[in-house]
Structure formats: C-alpha cells, structure tokens
Specification:
Chain A: Component of a multi-subunit COQ enzyme complex. The complex is a heterodimer of chains A (296) and B (531). Helix content of chain A is 39%, strand content 20%. With 296 residues, chain A is α/β, with parallel strands linked by helices. An 8-stranded mixed sheet of chain A has the order 3-2-1-4-5-8-6-7. Helix content of chain B is 38%, strand content 23%. In chain B, helix 4 packs parallel to helix 7 and helix 4 runs parallel beside helix 13. The radius of gyration of chain B is 27 Å and the shape is globular. The chains are: A alpha/beta (296), B alpha+beta (531). Chains A and B meet through helix 5, helix 6 and helix 7 of A and helix 8 and helix 13 of B.
Chain lengths: 296, 531
C-alpha cells in the first residue's frame, strides 16, 4: 500500500508522456491504470533531473484563455464565485495563527504573502485589500501581464508585486514569506512533492502555508470532471485530469515530508439552488488545507 | 485670460477658504505648504485654460489622503461609497456602516441638497406633529437600536401602539389585532419622518465615520465599464478609470467605488444608471393630515371604503395622523373644503358613513364552528368591535400625494445599487413602504461588511447581486400582497364583499393565521404563512 502511494507521484517525463499520448478530450478514466503500468516498466535512470514542477501542457491550457481572467461571466466564473469562500477560510485561519484582530478591516497589515500560481490575480487583490504585502507569481507570462494591468485600477492593489517565475526560482532567490498560498495549482503541476518542498522553503519558520485542490474520489470525478466540464460547461473540457488530483491524506503526507504540519482542513460545497459556495466539513470534492511550517 | 478663467479662479479661491475652515486636525506647516503649492499650481493651470496636469504617482499615502479629505474641487476626490440622497433610508445606510467594525473606516460622501442635513434644524416639542409620518415595525425598531439611533427617536414624540382594528364599509366583518397575540408589547411605533431623519443624523454625527455632506444635486454619473484599464502614463489617473465618477450641480466632481441611489421614487440615479422599472399608477391619491382627539388614542384604525382605505394612526399626545386614500377628484375636493367640513367628512368616513358597524360576534355565539381553535385563542379574538375616537380638530395642513406601484427590474449593476423608494414604491395601506427601505439599507450595509471581510471590491457586481437577490425576494412578496389587498378592496361586488367578510372573520378567529399575519407585518417573519 505504501509503495503504491509512493509510486503514485509521477515524474515530469512520465506525466508529460502520459498526457500527450491521450487526445485532449478523451475521458481519463483509464488513466490511473496506465500510470501504474508505465511506472512499473520504467527504469530509474530515465527519471528527469530537471527539478522543475512545471507542466508545459498545463501552462498552454491557461495561456490560451488568459484574457478572460477578469471577465466575471467567462471561463473563470466558477473561480470568481468560489473566491469569497476561499478568502473566508484564509482570513479565519491566518488571523488565528498570526493573532490578528478578525474585526479589523485590514487584518493582514504587516504580513508578507506570496500567491503561487496567482493567475490573473483574483486572490492577490483581495489579500492586498486586506492589508497584506502581496507577491503574485505565475509561470504564464500573459497572466502576469493581465494581473499587473488590473491591479493598477485601485490604490490598494497597485503595490502588488507580480513576477513571472516559478516557486523553485523564488527559492533559489532565497525569498521568504510569512504566508505562502497556492490555491488550485497543485493539481496542475507535474511533481506535487517537489512543489510542496518549494512552498515550504518559501515559508518562514512558523509561517503559514495554504494549499487548496480537488480530492481524487469518485464523487469528485462525477462533479469536477463530468458535471463541471461536460454537463454544466463551467470549465473548458480537459482543464483537470482526475489522476492528478490528490486525496487529503496524500496532501497531508507530502506536506509533512516538506516539514509543514497541516492544522486545519475544510471543504467547499456548492449549493446549486442558491448558487453559493460554503465552507463545510465535506472534503470529498474541493478542499483547502492550512498548515504551519515546523520551527527549525 | 478669458472670463471663464477669471470666474473659476475666484470660485476656486473661495472654495479653498470655505473648506479650510472645516479642516480638522493638526497639519504640519510643511504639509500645509505642500498643499498650498499644489492648489496654486492647479489654479494657475485652470486659469490659463490648460488641461489640469496629471499628478505624478505619489507614494506618500498620508499626503494623498489628506488632500482627499480636504474636499478641494479638483478631480481627485475619492470616496468609497457615495450615497445619493440623504433621506431616511440614505442616512440609515450611513448609520449602519458607521456602526459596524468592518465598515466604519470607509470614506462616505452624502449628496443631498436638503438643508436639514446641516443639522441646524431643531424640532420643538410644542409643534404639532407633522403630517408626514411613518409606521416603523418592531423589526425596524430593533435595527435602529442596533445602530444606536433609537435613543434619539425616544427623545422626541413617538407613539407605540399595541392594538389595531381593520374593517370595511360593508359592516360584514372586522379584525382586531393585539400585540399580546404574539406575546409582544407593541405592534409598531408611529414616528414623524423628520424625527426619524434627525435621529439618524444625530446618530451619525456621534460616530467616527469619515463623511462629507455635499449640499447639491447629482448632475451626471459615469460608470466605467471596462474591467481592464488601458495603460496610461500616470498610475493615479488610471485608478479613477475604473471608479464611478459623479458630477454635482455645484461643480464638484467626485469618484466613488460604489454609488448608492437612495434618492426616492423619482430617482435620478436609477435613471442615469439605466435601470428599467415596472409598475403602474393607482388612480388614487392619499390625503394626509394631523388631527386631534379629546382623549389619547392608542390603537391603529383602518377602514376600507369604496374608493380606498382611511387610516387613523396615533402619533402621541392626543394627536393622530390620517391617511385617506381616494380618487383624485375627491382628493382635490377634500383639500379645498374648509376645516369644519373636512372634520365632519373624516368622522363620517371613520364612523357612521358608507355602511353599518360590524357586529361583534363573540366566540360564545360561534362556539361550534371555532371550538377547536379555542385552545389556542388570541387575546384579540375576544375583543368587541370598537368605534374609533372622534376627530375634534384639524391641526395641520392637508397634503395630497399620488400613489403608484413601481419596482426597478434590477437593483444593482457594476458600481451602482438602489435602495429604498428608488428601488420600490408601494401603496401606504399597510405602512410597509419605509420599512422595506430600512430593510434594504441594513441589508446592504451587512453585505458590504461581508465583502470587505474577504477583501472584495465593494463595487463588484457579484457582491451587489447578493444584495439584490436577498431583498428582491422579500420586496416583491410584500408588494404583491399589498397590491392584492389594494385590488381586492377597491371592488364593490356582492360576492366579493362576502368573501372579504369571510377573510375578516377568518383572520379574526383563526389564531395561527392571525399570528402569522402579525409576525409578517412586524417584519419578524420573512415569508407569510410559511414560518
């Protein structure tokens, strides 16, 4: 069981090959099994020494719809609708952890936060309005351009620092932040374990790390892939690969390996009648985890 | 130098002098000098007919805020919320924002040319009550208490009432409501509009809310539609590209993240923002006035007459307020007739005119039919029909207002939202109009607070649509019910009269129904019947 779990994390080479070998639109039900057979047949020497967690195909997907980031009715609408709920969790956990007054309008005053995979900045801007000093990082150049343009529309968001770079490069620059937030990114990277190690390296000792992703369960397949992509057309087809989702247990494990202890976890639940997302204990589809970096 | 330039120079200097007197707080001399230099530069530029030079992006946030708070008539005055219309509902919104921890640091501009907003009008206790009154429901009273405005209302004349009687001219049935039916002390409170307004104003003067009252009217409004501003040289002017720009009649212009239209039934904001409305005019006018009785009146009376209801509401100190709905010809006649004739007409309408008094059917007689409700009797089911107190004297002028139903199809779009009468007007027959408006104001401030908690831009459409969805449901429900009543009672048709009588009897004797009606009308219950 443990070995299966370890082998579950694909390398760059492996995943790229696996994704490119399947047509973009084909269902990925059979993929877990394909991954396993490839893993067993590969030999150790073919593991790529490039420690980047980038996945070029994923980048291309996002680059093509970059202009629609701030269109509240466009392809990113689900993210816009979910945003306040994610921010509520972040506000609550970070205020508790850093002992900030939750009734203050700008509780994150004085905190340095990095938003890894910031996209068009839909998370970075509210964080900046809450008083934080925000750095937004994304591997897609177009996203950074859009984010920079949009953030200039208000005085509180004009100070956000946007960089087109990766978490690993930031680690090389030896940047450190009080809180590292990476939402809905880890399911698009090639090597989640390496990615988590980078996130941990960016966090100061006793700082906060927040990661959100989609669970790998039957329910999430039905909801996030079939319902969201094929039936409701909330997301373009092929946005997510079910095999790349992480279960909460796996996420906790790889974060622990990166010396981050997960303290709190919550799920997002969508109510189709009201069209609202709420935080709940149900982590079977979307979930978010808050962890702290072990003090060295 | 052209004449226009000279005129604007003098105007700018005057404005600077006036505003400088209002500036509070310590200014260091260097800041004053910097400000003075900036103003002089601006004046020079305007006078020479040049375009106002764009400011270079200033990292010194303190200096920028300082200049904003001075309210100089330049193009960079920047507010979080601009409330257009400083009436009861607009001020209630401002009070509510001031009372919540997350919103009290917002910068608010209130635009209203009403001189009452300068806070200089004093309400004398000896004055007879103004005919413009509103009935506030218990839900509204508790909201006022939450923001700390009710204590100011209590310092002036206000009248709680705990009983209400409704009947119609056919004399076939009546309903009495009592606050004890739902274990409450009061059914509502009748307060003059000017008292409500000045209480809200006093409340807000005592808070730290950063506000500026602009005593002028809104001329035009530009809501910038693009969500991606084009690259401009100066970052500061691109800040304003995405905000709403308001131009006022006295020449000021200001930018705001959110424009709130609280400017009443003929809302200019609603027109400028392009919101369409649905509705119709009732072919009825309301005649309102204040009258005096021999004894104190503590019950609210409403009698439905063939051409519309007449309501008698206690306002305190033996005075009552009359709201008499009738068709336009009769309303002009009422306004023209002399006082004695009018008083006689009032007594006729309230008491012996148009039809007989309803029979008081005490439960003893109808025991068999309603016996299974007897376990759960309401206090008022046992009360007899009472005749309303005689009107002795007319103590104020008579005002006439046309009545209509109007509802904006949408309450919100990017950077603009409507509350109060700007969004909906209703028939006064149940005293709900301003209560819906107060409900809107308090709901909007709560939603703004929730938005700020998660760092949302308060002018963002998703946030405002949350407010719209919440309030539309309730407002439409109430409007539909009131419109239904208005239509049901404006027809004199035998079988319909009997149906109405049956409705009166039903409401009087079926306790769960009565409790439901009281709770809904008091604002405690969100939906009628389904609690």
């Amino acid at each position: 069981m443990a070995s299966k779990l370890l082998n579950r994390f694909p390398t760059l080479n492996n995943t790229a090959y696996h994704i490119l070998s399947l047509p973009f639109l084909r269902s990925t039900v059979a993929s877990p099994f394909l991954v396993h057979t490839r893993l067993y047949s590969e030999d150790v020497s073919s593991r790529v020494s490039n420690r980047s967690s980038l996945n070029q195909v994923e980048l291309a997907k996002f680059s093509s719809i970059a202009d629609t980031w701030w269109d509240a009715e466009g392809p990113f609408k689900p993210l816009h609708v979910m945003n306040p709920t994610r921010l509520a969790f972040i506000r609550s956990t970070l205020c508790r952890h850093f002992q900030k007054d939750p009734y203050c309008a700008r509780p994150f005053e004085g905190l340095k936060i990095v938003d890894v995979g910031c996209g068009g900045g839909i998370l970075s801007e509210p964080l900046a309005r809450m008083g934080a000093t925000v750095t937004g990082v994304d591997a897609v150049e177009k996203n950074i351009k859009i984010a920079r343009l949009h953030s200039e529309s208000g005085p509180e968001t004009a100070n956000i620092e946007y960089c087109c770079t990766t978490a690993e490069k930031l680690v090389e620059e030896q940047r450190e932040f009080d809180a590292v937030i990476s939402l809905e990114v880890i399911e698009h990277v090639a090597d989640p374990a390496e990615f988590c190690k980078s996130l941990a390296a960016l966090t100061v000792s006793n700082g906060a790390t927040v990661v959100s992703t989609i669970n790998r369960s039957m329910r999430s397949y039905a909801t996030a892939i079939i319902a969201a992509e094929y039936i409701l057309h909330w997301l373009p087809k092929g946005t997510h690969q079910w095999s790349n989702f992480l279960t909460p247990q796996e996420l906790v494990l790889i974060l622990q390996r990166a010396s981050i202890t997960v303290q709190e976890m919550a799920g997002f639940v969508y109510n189709p009648l009201t069209g609202q997302w709420t935080l709940s204990d149900d982590i079977s589809v979307n979930f978010i985890a808050f962890g702290t970096k072990n003090s060295q | 130098m052209n004449n226009r330039g000279k005129g604007s120079l003098k105007y700018l200097l005057q404005q600077r002098q006036i505003v400088a007197r209002f500036v509070k707080g310590d200014q260091s001399t260097s800041q004053k000098k910097a400000k003075g230099r900036a103003v002089a530069a601006k004046i020079a530029a305007e006078v020479c007919g040049l375009k106002v030079p764009r400011r270079t992006f200033c990292n010194n946030i303190a200096a920028r805020e300082h200049e904003e708070n001075l309210g100089l008539p330049n193009n960079f005055v920047h507010y979080d919320i601009a409330i257009v219309g400083g009436g009861m509902v607009g001020m209630a919104l401002a009070c509510s924002l001031a009372s919540m921890p997350l919103t009290k640091q917002l910068n608010v501009a209130i635009i209203d040319s009403n001189p009452a907003l300068e806070g200089k009008t004093c309400i004398k206790k000896e004055d007879p009550p103004d005919p413009r009154v509103s009935t506030v429901t218990p839900a509204t009273i508790s909201l006022f208490k939450d923001v700390g405005a009710w204590q100011y209302v209590q310092q002036h004349r206000h009248a709680y009432f705990d009983k209400m009687q409704v009947w119609d001219y056919t004399g076939l049935g009546y309903t009495r409501y009592n606050a004890r039916d739902v274990d409450k002390e009061v059914l509502g409170c009748v307060v003059e509009n000017k008292v409500l307004h000045s209480s809200l104003l006093s409340c807000i003067q005592n808070t730290d809310l950063k506000k500026r009252i602009y005593p002028s009217r809104l001329n035009s409004m530009t809501l910038h539609q693009n969500h991606l501003p084009t690259m401009m040289d100066s970052t500061s002017s691109s800040f304003h590209a995405s905000l709403a720009k308001l131009e006022l009649s006295d020449g000021n212009s200001l930018y705001a993240k959110l424009v709130v239209g609280a400017d009443g039934a003929k809302s200019h904001v609603r027109e400028l923002a392009g919101f369409k409305t649905t509705g119709w005019n009732y072919s009825q006018n309301a005649v309102i006035c204040t009258v005096e009785h021999k004894t104190e009146n503590q019950c609210a009376w409403q009698r439905f007459l063939p051409s519309g209801p007449i309501a008698l509401l206690p306002v305190g100190d033996k005075f009552s307020n009359i709201v008499w709905t009738m068709n336009p010809k009769e309303s002009s006649a009422c306004r023209e007739m002399n006082e004695n004739d009018f008083v006689k007409a009032l007594n006729h309408a309230l008491n012996y005119g148009y039809g007989p008094h309803p029979q008081s059917n005490l439960l003893g007689n109808n025991g068999d039919i309603f016996s299974w409700f007897r376990r759960d009797l309401t206090v008022s089911a046992n009360e007899c029909f009472e005749v309303p107190p005689d009107v002795v004297k007319l103590v104020s002028g008579r005002m006439v207002f046309p009545l209509s139903l109007r509802h904006a199809n949408n309450y919100a779009s990017k950077r603009v939202v409507l509350i109060g009468d700007a969004a909906h007007t209703v028939h006064p027959l149940a005293g709900q109009g301003v209560n819906l408006g107060f409900g809107d104001a308090f709901a909007l401030s709560r939603i703004i607070s929730e938005g700020i908690a998660v760092g949302t831009d308060i002018g963002e459409v998703h946030l405002l649509k949350k407010f719209e969805v919440e309030r539309k449901r309730e407002n439409i429900m109430m409007m539909a019910i009131l419109d239904g009543f208005q239509k049901a009672y404006s027809v004199d048709f035998g079988p319909l009269n009997v149906l109405r009588a049956a409705a009166f009897h039903g409401a009087q004797y079926i306790s769960p129904l009565k409790r439901s009606i009281i709770s809904y009308a008091s604002g405690e219950q969100r939906l009628p019947l389904f609690s």
